[in-house]
Design a protein that fits this description.
Distance between the termini of chain A: 30 Å
Structural class of chain A: mainly alpha
Shape of chain B: elongated
Strand order of the largest sheet of chain B: 1-2-3-4
Number of strands of chain B: 4
Number of helices of chain B: 14
Radius of gyration of chain A: 25 Å
Radius of gyration of chain B: 26 Å
Helix content of chain B: 55-70%
Strand order of the largest sheet of chain A: 1-2
Helix content of chain A: over 70%
Distance between the termini of chain B: 26 Å
Oligomer: heterodimer
Largest sheet of chain B: 4 strands, antiparallel
Order of helices and strands of chain B: HHHHEEEEHHHHHHHHHH
Structural class of chain B: alpha+beta
């Protein structure tokens, strides 16, 4: 049998059935996004009262009285007098297209409109956009760390089953999962303060905020990433270690491993070329779940550690009942997770031909 | 030989639950976890009695004070465990106010002291507390015993950990039960009927699963009206936590239904005219009950973390009621924690509980697996 190189697999990537598979997956992506938007809109609608009444109450505390006519006209402007399903459509329209009707345009001059954030006095999209890049960046770094740390550990643990290292990795992994993220953050913050006299809170120092992150202060930035990486990263590490380890143990016991060993393939090659390739698949398919738990874990942790990502914005939005902003953040995170699932499905089809041939009925 | 046949016979005749219990007994970690959890839950049940102080008792003098030190020797004489009252002293040079034990008289720690009134299990009025501080050796009063120190208002953290456990330990349990019923009902509809209903329900589960848990919980908590009573708050929190957890359960139930619904015994029941609901609850659900209980147990730690995080953020249970999350609010700033490390004590309880549920769930999963 001819040796299958990376180039060959890359050609296989563009095979007809794979393209069909990807198209099918992308099409399935659309109803999922629609359902998420309905769920998020449901959450937005949940709090008692609408945001015009919240706004009026806020004005009243500043001593400004608002009459009923003004309130009614404001409701009409925002479309709050419409039936719920029309409000939903309007909201979706606001997400996808530039609002063209005049009232919208006067109220918030922006290209994309996710309605208006009261807490920030700007439109929601610009508030979300402020921290979106950093949120994705931080999450990506943590995710990279997770995989880089947990996969070698898992391979080691599976090849040295029941060794001391195996037990230690299991214990650390378990503690990481069991201790709630924000609690670990508090404890590490305290220890860091006690040992180094610096709590290393926040992603950027005052100096970085003024001058930006450059090469000379990049070390400090990395130092500030240590606690978030440990706190948010360890929670998922255990899951990955466990699943890869279990898969590896299954694969090592398979007959093809025995055959390879019998014909004299070196042990390292057996592990890396045969077992590992087969064992990695469930981990690839778990990417969406990992992403979801990262967002979940980072939300509260970011508040404790004062990180400049979306968690604190969500919190502030909820405190001031700014539901459109809160909804937008939840929606963005959910969509990112779904994109993660989509990418992992495609990667899986690339790695494992069986999936694209069977049409991917997972 | 006869004995061996007997034990073999026992093994074959044993019910599924007996077998599970037997396997669970071999799992030491799960057993220890079970005992720890039992102690915690019993402690929470009798929290009023075990805690020396009630929720609203405070002493301004003891604000942020470290755990009360317990002594046994007074003036070279062994008088048994006792504490000293704290007294304010002012440093004459720096004018710094310090709290130091007043060594002039001692206060013995006594068992079964009378304190604030409460109701045992909410039924019988009583004012006995397991332990407390008695009168001073010179007839003085007002000494306090704060085993875990005091919070920023001078309230006993030990008592509050115990009293807070009632909320922190019961909300996840209650929400687990709601998710159980929701999960079984929706999962069985999905698995039993199949077709379009199945596709729709599966999509919904997928979507709820895609939304990150804690942000969704936080967003849902915004729907809770402000200024409601603790009981209502408790109720809402339970509902919110079960809003996500039922999906895992429903998935398990659906999978089991798909594999079981074409079994002969189900067919036989259907032919003899048993109603659909009766088939589901009487014939199908008992068949995979053990899996459900396992996934329930494994879902509880997530709810504990959820409740704690939300209360910590002030989106859940609020003062004057307390839970472990509310207690941890005191530990939110580094300077505060650095000055009063004893405020981190509630963390130990959260961690132990979450770990214990994880180990117990793991043990139960192994026990429920017939191939092991």
């Amino acid at each position: 049998m001819a040796k299958r190189s990376f180039g060959d697999s890359f050609k296989a990537f563009f095979q007809k059935d794979l393209v069909q598979y990807i198209i099918k997956r992308v099409l399935m992506f659309i109803p999922t996004i629609l359902l998420i938007s309905i769920l998020v809109f449901f959450v937005i609608q949940l709090p008692p009262g609408d945001y015009v009444s919240a706004h009026i109450a806020a004005l009243a505390t500043e001593g400004e009285l608002v009459d009923a006519d003004y309130a009614a006209s404001m409701r009409a402007d925002y479309g709050l007098d419409l039936p719920v399903w029309q409000q939903y459509l309007k909201w979706v329209k606001g997400i996808i297209w530039t609002p063209t009707d005049s009232a919208y345009y006067r109220l918030y001059h922006s290209h994309h409109n996710w309605k208006y954030s009261f807490a920030y006095g700007r439109d929601v999209w610009s508030v979300v956009n402020d921290r979106l890049g950093l949120t994705i960046g931080v999450t990506a770094i943590i995710m990279l760390f997770q995989y880089l740390v947990s996969i070698p550990i898992a391979v080691y643990a599976s090849t040295h089953q029941y060794s001391v290292g195996d037990y230690i990795s299991a214990i650390i992994g378990f503690l990481g999962t069991a201790i709630p993220n924000f609690i670990l953050a508090i404890v590490l913050m305290y220890l860091s303060y006690k040992w180094t006299g610096n709590a290393n809170v926040g992603l950027f120092s005052q100096e970085m905020l003024q001058n930006g992150v450059h090469l000379y202060n990049f070390g400090d930035f990395l130092k500030r990433m240590i606690i978030p990486i440990i706190v948010i990263g360890t929670s998922g590490t255990c899951g990955i270690i466990r699943s890869v380890r279990a898969q590896m143990l299954d694969e090592v016991a398979q007959q093809y491993t025995l055959t390879a060993r019998a014909k004299g393939v070196p042990e390292g090659k057996i592990i890396m070329k045969y077992c590992f390739r087969a064992a990695i698949n469930p981990t690839v398919s778990g990417l969406g779940g990992v992403l979801s738990s990262l967002f979940s874990g980072s939300t509260v942790t970011a508040l404790v550690l004062n990180m400049q990502i979306q968690g604190p914005v969500l919190y502030k939005a909820l405190q001031s009942q700014d539901m459109y902003l809160a909804g937008a953040i939840v929606m963005i995170q959910a969509v990112l997770v779904v994109i993660g699932v989509l990418l992992s499905d495609i990667a899986l089809a690339f790695l494992d031909p069986r999936i694209r041939y069977s049409g991917g009925n997972r | 030989m006869a004995k061996r046949t007997k034990s073999k016979e026992d093994y074959y005749l044993a019910s599924q639950w007996t077998l599970m219990a037997r396997k669970l007994k071999k799992h030491k970690l799960a057993q220890v976890s079970f005992i720890i959890l039992a102690v915690l839950y019993i402690g929470a049940l009798f929290a009023d009695f075990l805690a020396p102080y009630s929720l609203d008792e405070f002493d301004g003098l003891y604000r942020n004070s470290a755990p009360t030190e317990i002594y046994t020797i007074f003036n070279d004489e062994h008088v048994g465990p006792h504490v000293y009252k704290l007294a304010k002293t002012i440093d004459k040079k720096t004018f710094e106010v310090k709290l130091e034990p007043d060594l002039s008289e001692y206060y013995k720690i006594e068992w079964f002291v009378h304190g604030t009134e409460y109701k045992i299990l909410g039924l019988f009025p009583c004012d006995l507390h397991l332990f407390g501080v008695g009168e001073g050796s010179n007839g003085g009063t007002g000494a306090k015993i704060f085993l875990f120190g005091a919070d920023s208002l001078g309230r006993d953290i030990f008592s509050r950990v115990l009293l807070g456990a009632r909320i922190s330990l019961s909300i996840p349990f209650a929400s687990a039960f709601i998710s159980f019923f929701l999960g079984v009902a929706i999962g069985s509809i999905s698995g039993y009927f199949g077709g379009v209903i199945d596709i729709i329900i599966q999509r919904i589960i997928e979507v709820i699963g895609a939304v990150p848990q804690i942000p969704l919980w936080m967003a849902l908590s915004a729907a809770i009206p402000a200024g409601i009573s603790t009981v209502k708050m408790y109720f809402y929190m339970t509902i919110i936590l079960s809003f996500i957890n039922w999906t895992g359960m429903a998935r398990v139930v659906r999978g089991k239904f798909l594999s079981l619904k074409n079994e002969d015994y189900v067919m036989a029941a259907r032919i003899s005219g048993v109603s659909t609901w009766k088939i589901i609850w009487k014939h199908l659900v008992p068949g995979f009950m053990s899996y459900l209980i396992v996934s329930l147990t494994l879902g509880i730690p997530g709810s504990i973390v959820g409740e704690t995080s939300m209360s910590y953020l002030g989106l859940g249970i609020k003062s004057p009621a307390t839970s472990w999350g509310v207690l941890l609010q005191e530990a939110s700033s580094v300077t505060d924690v650095a000055a009063n490390p004893h405020k981190l004590i509630p963390i130990i309880f959260v961690t132990i509980t979450v770990l214990a549920f994880n180990f117990l769930g793991d043990g139960m999963r192994d026990a429920a697996d017939p191939y092991k």
